[in-house]
């Protein structure tokens, strides 16, 4: 069952999600936190990672490349090398 995005998740900027994800990872790496807190942080980290991935996918879809073919400049959708 798909989970609905919270309003906070939808409005979160990439940079904010990434910063909070780094804080969560650092806290988890400290290793001296209670299990329940670690699980909560882990779940938050997964959510933040998903938000960052979705934001990057959306931005990638908006990027176009200008390429020169046959002496003319054309727009093409941006593709990461190695992806089809």
From TrEMBL:
Location within or outside the cell: Cytoplasm
Keywords: Cytoplasm, Exonuclease, Hydrolase, Nuclease
Listed InterPro entries: Exonuc_VII_S, Exonuc_VII_ssu_sf
Its EC number(s): 3.1.11.6
Pfam families: Exonuc_VII_S
Substrates-to-products reaction catalysed: Exonucleolytic cleavage in either 5'- to 3'- or 3'- to 5'-direction to yield nucleoside 5'-phosphates
Gene Ontology terms: biological process: DNA catabolic process
Enzyme class of the recorded protein, top EC level: hydrolase
Entry's Gene Ontology cellular component terms: cytosol; exodeoxyribonuclease VII complex
GO MF annotation terms: exodeoxyribonuclease VII activity
Subunit structure: Heterooligomer composed of large and small subunits.
Function recorded in the entry: Bidirectionally degrades single-stranded DNA into large acid-insoluble oligonucleotides, which are then degraded further into small acid-soluble oligonucleotides.
Record family assignment: Belongs to the XseB family.
Protein name per UniProt: Exodeoxyribonuclease 7 small subunit
Organism: Brevibacillus antibioticus
